[in-house]
Structures are given as structure tokens and as C-alpha cells.
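Protocol step 4 of 6.
Sequence for Pectinesterase inhibitor domain-containing protein (Dovyalis caffra) entered exactly as in the expression construct, tag removed. Do not edit the line below.
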Amino acid sequence: MKHIYLSPFALCFLLFVLITPTPNNSISTLEVSTKDITNRTCKRCAEDSTAFSYDFCISSLQTIPASHATNLHGLAIIGMELALENATNTISTIKYLLSSGTFDRYALVRLRDCLELYTDAIVTIVDGVAAFLTEHYSVAEVKVSAVMEASTTCEEGFAEKKGVVSPLTEENFNLFQLSDISLCIIHILSLVEY
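Step 5 output, C-alpha cells:
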């Protein structure tokens, strides 16, 4: 997995979210110790889904130092921020691939489709963060699920023609997994809220 660096704006946003008190509710049982919140969360999510990668979850969230001293709300935001960073970087990769002159017409059409999917995914992630921050968890879940679907659609577009290999397999996998991390945490929080 490529290392992801957050912009100063994103880091300030994370800091704001992480120091803002969370609503008083029964999440405390899930957050007995923030020391291992990342491990507990990744383990729980991996137990709930066969598509979820525990190792990916741990390695992704642990790249952000704040994940070691946050709560579930903070982890969900970190996951969505990482997904946003991935989608932004993937758009740059797609633009480079489109201009490289190394792909046939079929692959170029698929790359343009992926560019559109990833451009839409950025807007969708931002909308998902906004819904999450206003505690509209069901809306946030729909938005994050749509981002996961975008990564899958991009990958499957290349597979429609025999022998064509997607040049974005790693990026699609990463976006899917980062979104899945956020989706799982949002789902956990939504269960606690009701």
C-alpha cells in the first residue's frame, strides 16, 4: 500500500474532530481503552465481514498517529479522510495513464469511466463526512457504500474484455477497503445510537 500523507487542512480538520467531545452515550463500552481502539475496531469489523481485511485496516489506521488516541468517531473520520486522499491520488494516476499513450481504445474508455467514478467518489466522500458529522449515520452509510461500489465498478469495467488487466487494481482495492473501514465503524456507531 502506498503511504498516504494528509494535507495541513485535513490534519487541522482531524484535530478539530478528535478534540471535540463526543455525545454522551453508551459507546464507552466499545472504547474502554483508546490505547487499543484501532485493534479492537479492526478485529470486530473483520469478524463481521469476509471482504474486510484486518491487516489492511491496522496498517492503514496506524499510519495516522491520532488513531492511537481517538474514539470510534475519530476512527471513522480518519478512514474517510484516507479514502478521500486515495481517491484524489487515483485521479492523478488516471490522468497520467490517459496521457501516457500506452493503452488501446478499450482501456482508454475504461480509464475515462474510472476518472468519472473517482471524481464523483470525492464529492460522495465529502457528503458522507458531512452526514456523519451531523450524526445522519444512515446517509453516511449510503454515501460510503456508493464509494465502495465506484471502486468495484471501475475494476470490473476492465474485466469485461477477456485478457484486459486493470492498471488500477491496487487503487481500487485500497479505496474499497478504506471505505469499508469507515462503513463498519459508522455501522457500529449507528447501532449504539439507537
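Step 6, annotate. Residues 105-133 form the longest helix (29 residues).
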